[in-house]
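Course assignment 3, question 2. Fill in each field.
Student: A.L.
Task: Predict the tertiary structure for the chain below.
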Amino acid sequence: MDTTVLGGGDPLALCQAAERAIKRGETNREAFALKFLLLDRDKIGLAPQRDQGIQPILNGTGAVIIWQDTAHEAMLLRHLPGCAALRPPSTALAVQQLVQRWPQYEKPMNATQLGARLDLARLQQAAAVEPDLANFFAQIEFF
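Answer field:
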C-alpha cells in the first residue's frame, strides 16, 4: 500500500496532484491495483467549471473518490462512539463537534495518532453509515 498526503483545498487541484503522484508511482514500479482519493464534499460546487475537470482525471487514472461529507472532520466524527448519525451541516460545526468529543484532536493528525483512537470497531461504525468508506474497505478486503 502506498499513501500520499495531498492536503486540502480545491478538489480539481487535489485530483491533479493525485494524478501526478499516481503517474510517478506507476512509473517507478507496477501499476497500482486500486486508487482512492479522500475529498471533502463541501468544496464541490464552489467552482463548477473546475469541478468538471475532476471526472476526466478519475477516468484516466482509475481512481475512486471517497467523499467526506461535509469534510474530513465530519467523517472522523462519525467514527466516535455514539456519533455515527451526526451530520453537521458545515465544516465549522463538524470541527466544533469533533473537538468537543475528542479534545486531543489536532489537524493534521498522522496515521499513528488516528489509529490510537480509531480501532476496528470505530472503522466499522463509520463504514456502516458512509457508503464510499464501506466500498473502500470492501475493495481492499479489510472487513
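Instructor remarks: Strands lie at 36-40, 64-68. The CA atoms of residues 127 and 133 lie 5 Å apart.
Grade: pending
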